[in-house]
Amino acid sequence: MAIRYFGKQAVEQNRIVGRYLRGGKDAGTPWRVTALIEDLPANTHLQFEYLVSSNSYPDDLHRNSIWTWPVMHTYLRLKDQASLATVERKLEQLVETHALPQLQKANNATNASNLFFHFPLQALTGIHLKSDYLQEMAPNGNATYVNTLYIISIFILLLACVNYINLFTARATLRAKEVGVKKAVGANGKQLITQFLTESLVLCSLATVLGFGLMQVFYQGADGFLGKGALHPIWSSKQMALMGLGITAIVGLLAGAYPALYMTRFRPLQVLKDNLAHGLQGSSLRNVLVVFQFVVSIGLITATLVVNQQVSYFKNPPTGF
Amino acid sequence: MEERFATSPPPLAEAIRSSIPEVEAVARLYYWSDFTMRPDHNFDKIFRETKVYAADADFFKVLKCKFLAEILLLRYKNLPR
């Protein structure tokens, strides 16, 4: 913005403040640049290019006293100890003393009881997903979509865990000897559990790294689709990194826990005698898991197909001729 | 009919400032209009600005922002109109 008007050199040398822009209705009003702020992040709700002091507003709008005319965004910063309930109660009092009488007069209403007028507070961080009112500053998102995607992603992660457990226990035959030998040599259950858990955690970390790599690849495409810079802050945020680590750990433990317990249950004598049929029977949990896997994947695939058909239907409805 | 606005009436801010002590700072943003702007040194350089908001003086007390540069308030008391 400042670079656009004054050039990069002037911005770098800090020679902007105090200079003038000319604009306004007659293109002759001089506006003095009094401050320069850093670029607002692309995902902010506050989408202004620049701010003009309200004292300079020509129509005295900011000193207007009409309570029934919602024209401006009002932002509050509360004191640290302030309670929301108290502030909201005081806002209701303001409605009663100022707004309702005016509203009553404007509507020629005899009593105020059937007039609805409130000033609810809206947290700044909740504006994008939760508030969707008239005259918003920027288009809002929809919390339902975000939550749906969250739930779907959790199910997909669970599917991956279940898949890992199934594959691991199915391949147990191949590794049963390893367990048998280790036990015969003197490894205790704790050590074996640690080994299998470590295995799944390492695998999970590798998958996370791969996932972040893929995210970087698809990010290029999504950037153009979602708007430039819309995804950028996700990368740099600490929260995201912590979430990635947390999910890695949870998934690794969730997927690794059952196989680890399962494998360490093998009795070395039976396993080493190639009498595996005995050691592998009775795994009803695996059947449950396979059913879960099929239910979730069939559910997701069906939902996708149905939604896709619906969308393509209302994109190309039969016009009837 | 129920209508819910993200915006509020102009006198609300002053009423909050004078009667709710729990509020540390209050400021309003008002969408001004589109502007055609040019810098003072080069009148051939013209831009159409579409995101111009009028802000109260306390706006940056409500929202902490990183200032790259600013001048003291004292110095622009006699702002040319």
Topology:
The complex is a heterodimer of chains A (321) and B (81).
Chain A: H1 2-6, H2 8-12, E1 20-23, E2 29-32, E3 35-37, E4 50-53, E5 73-78, H3 84-107, H4 127-130, H5 143-170, H6 172-185, H7 189-226, H8 232-236, H9 238-264, H10 268-272, H11 276-280, H12 284-315
Antiparallel strand pairs in A: 1-2
Helix pairs in contact in A: 5-9, 5-12, 7-9
Chain B: H1 12-19, E1 23-31, E2 35-39, E3 47-49, E4 52-55, H2 59-62, E5 67-70
Antiparallel strand pairs in B: 1-4, 2-3
Your description of this structure?
- The complex is a heterodimer of chains A (321) and B (81).
- Chain A is 60% helix and 7% strand.
- Chain A is mainly α.
- Chain A has 3 domains: 58 residues, no CATH class; 66 residues, no CATH class; 123 residues, no CATH class.
- Chain A has a two-stranded antiparallel ribbon with strand order 1-2.
- In chain A, helix 7 runs antiparallel to helix 9.
- Chain A is elongated and about 95 Å long.
- The relative contact order of chain A is 0.07.
- Chain B has 81 residues and is of the alpha+beta class.
- Chain B is 15% helix and 31% strand.
- Chain B has a two-stranded antiparallel sheet.
- In chain B, strand 2 and strand 3 form a beta hairpin.
- The termini of chain B are far apart.
- In chain B, 30% of the residues are buried.
- The chains are: A mainly alpha (321), B alpha+beta (81).
- At the A-B interface, helix 1, strand 1, strand 2, strand 3 and strand 4 of A face helix 1, strand 1, strand 2, strand 4 and helix 2 of B.
- Strand 3 of chain A pairs antiparallel with strand 5 of chain B.
Outline of this structure?
The complex is a heterodimer of chains A (321) and B (81). Chain A has helices spanning 2-6, 8-12, 84-107, 127-130, 143-170, 172-185, 189-226, 232-236, 238-264, 268-272, 276-280, 284-315, and strands at 20-23, 29-32, 35-37, 50-53, 73-78.
For the largest beta sheet of chain B, what order do the strands appear in spatially?
1-4
Q: Kindly state the mean pLDDT of chain A as a whole number?
A: 78
Helix and strand pattern of chain B: HEEEEHE
Summed up, the helix count of chain A is 12
Task: Quickly count the helices of chain B.
Answer: 2
What is the C-alpha radius of gyration of chain B, as a whole number of Å? Answer: 17 Å
Estimate what percentage of residues of chain B fall within beta strands. 25-35%
Secondary structure: helix percent of chain A? 55-70%
Seen as an oligomer or otherwise, the chain set is heterodimer
Summed up, the domain count of chain A is 3
The span between the termini of chain B is 43 Å
What class do helices, strands and sheet pairing of chain A give? mainly alpha
**Element pattern of chain A in H and E:** HHEEEEEHHHHHHHHHH
Strand order of the largest sheet of chain A: 1-2
Average residue pLDDT of chain B: 74
| Largest sheet composition of chain A | 2 strands, antiparallel
Shape of chain A: elongated
